[in-house]
Amino acid sequence: MALAEKIVLKAGRALPMLGVFMSFDIKGIVNSRLGENYDLHEQYVNQTLVKVLRTIEFDKIYARAEGCYLYDREGNDYLDFLSGYGVYGIGRNHPVLKQTIRDVMEMDLPNMVQMDCALLSGLLGEAISRETGGDRNACFFGNSGTEVNEAAIKFARAYTKRNRMISLKGSYHGLSYGSLSLTQNNNFQSGFGQLLPGVDYVALNDLDALAHELKKGDVAGFIIEPIQGKGVHMPDPGYYEKAQQLCRDNGTLFICDEVQTGLGRTGKMFAYEHWNLDPDIVTVAKTLSGGFVPVGGIITRRRIYQGVFSSMDRCVVHSSTFGRNNLAMACGLATLHVLKEEKLVENSARRGEQLMDGIRELAKKHEMIKDVRGKGCMIAIEFQKPSNLLLRAAWKIFDNVDKGLFPEMIVHGLMSKERILTQVAGHNMDVIKILPPYTIDDKEIGRFLNGLDRVLTECGSPLGPMWKFGANLAKHALAAKKAKAAK
Questions:
Q1: Which one of 295, 419, 433, 458 is most buried, counting C-beta atoms within 10 A?
Q2: Where are the alpha helices (DSSP H) in 133-206?
Q3: Is the pLDDT reported for residue 1 higher than 60?
Q4: 351-375 confidence digits (pLDDT tens)
């Protein structure tokens, strides 16, 4: 018998296998194989994603990250105005989060006992309930935004004893079965067969359509993103307040999906505060993790919560194995601490306005900027056809192939020429979205504005490299369309 096995079996219990632990060197593995990223993903993970990233020249090898920046193997910095789709509100690898994880690991706490009530999940429930305010003091924790939106459907149905859900057209609530059904976007829904029955959509700002659906008396919940992530769309004045009252009048729960907008992203702790709303259910994720351990949460009123866990034999009728794990809960607590201690919610509001003011100044110089909108560090820049005849003709060609090609060209230019990471705001729209960390200051704002200025200036030349790259994108998009049509 090997020595390691003897150590494990000694006294009938497992003891530290020091030799085995020392033989696993994750630092050595990463250092020796960094650079194989895309080849490994092409062989073992998502080949199509690899193809897209290589086509748009986003196939960078990042070796390190800190705050607002990513760094490649050569030490070049990349300004991260994507933030992992909004995860890194407090910046990447925040030292408080790193130390929190070390501390939890060193305590050797019991974790996921399941048949117990762990301290850290109770503490996070207490802390986040205080932030949402009102009588929302009952929390459920899961692993992601889509998971807690799934839970919101179940909570609404259990409490109201109704089946139907209403969401907004153009919404995005996640990609698992129930949340995908709430996501009114054919690009995400297509190809997956019949989705959850009993889901209907109304247009943002159409109160008459909402009232018509609610008066049927069978709607369990109306779910909104206070600011829609796809396109960064906001309501007309008074719409949300009246929609909330319609829900109250018709016995329907009013649900705010704050997965992306929550915890400071829009310059308020929660985006619903911009409209003084009082939702029945709030869902959160992304920023709550601090960027380390996935976590999602529901915060709701106790009576709604008890509509699910309604008796002793139903105490675990809805559950998530990893949902209350110690590392996730500790990261959530640490993130809330950092947001408060460093006044990052206030910085998000202030720096967001500074960014939008700067982009509006650029719009005076660059006619292709049609609109700038957003709140805090959630901003959309919408583009429009230029007046120059050659540019207008090129735009029209691109638009006929794929409406999102021009903003993709801008995103590519910002990355390839300025090392700034951004994203197209959604399918079939001429919009890019920026989601910077709340820690940005004059340096990052200046770099983004100057970079955008240079990229748009280069777009003013119809024969320049930007439009040549756009033509290459159009070629790929057209080939993809023909291949799809041939099937």
A1: 295
A2: 145-160, 177-182, 186-189
A3: no
A4: 999 999 999 999 999 999 999 999 9
Q: Is the pLDDT of residue 6 over 50?
A: no
Same domain, 373 and 316: no
Question: At residue 10, does pLDDT exceed 60?
Answer: no
Give, for 255, the enclosing helix (H) or strand (E): strand 253-257
DSSP for residue 150: H
DSSP of 421-478, one letter per residue?
E-EE-STT-SEEEE---TT--HHHHHHHHHHHHHHHHHHT-TTSHHHHHHHHHHHHHH
Which one-letter DSSP state was computed for residue 277?
Answer: -
Length of the chain: 487
Q: How many CB atoms lie within 10 A of CB 480?
A: 12
On whether both 165 and 258 belong to a single domain, the answer is yes
pLDDT in tens, 139-154: 999 999 999 999 999 9
Closest by CA position to 188, among listed 165, 167, 207: 167
At 309, which amino acid appears? Answer: F
Residue entry with tokens 């705050």:
67
User: In which domain, by residue range, is 298 found?
Assistant: 97-341
| Same-domain status, 125 and 267 | yes
* pTM beyond 0.85, yes or no: yes
Q: How far apart are the C-alpha atoms of 295 and 477, rounded to whole Å? A: 36
Beta-bridge partners for 457? none
Looking at the DSSP bridge assignments, the partners of residue 371 are 382
User: Residue 136: what are its φ and ψ, rounded to 5°?
Assistant: -85, 95
271-287 core/surface letters (b: 16 or more CB in 10 A; e: else) = bbebbebbbbbbbbbbb
Tokens (6 digits) for 153: 């459907």
Distance CA 430, CA 372 (A): 12
Pair of tokens at residue 114: 């399941």
Same domain, residue pair 399 and 420? yes
Q: Based on the domain organization, do 126 and 234 belong to the same domain? A: yes
Sequence-ordered list of residues with C-beta below 8 angstroms from that of 384, at least 6 positions apart, any chain: 367, 368, 369, 370, 430
- Whether the per-residue pLDDT at 473 is higher than 80: the answer is no
pLDDT tens digits, one per residue of 121-180: 999 999 999 999 899 999 999 999 999 999 999 999 999 999 999 999 999 999 999 999
Boundary residue ending a domain (290, 314, 341): 341
Q: Which residues pair with 382 in a beta bridge?
A: 371, 431
CB 180 within 8 A of CB 186: no
- Domain end: 341, 366, 391, which one? 341
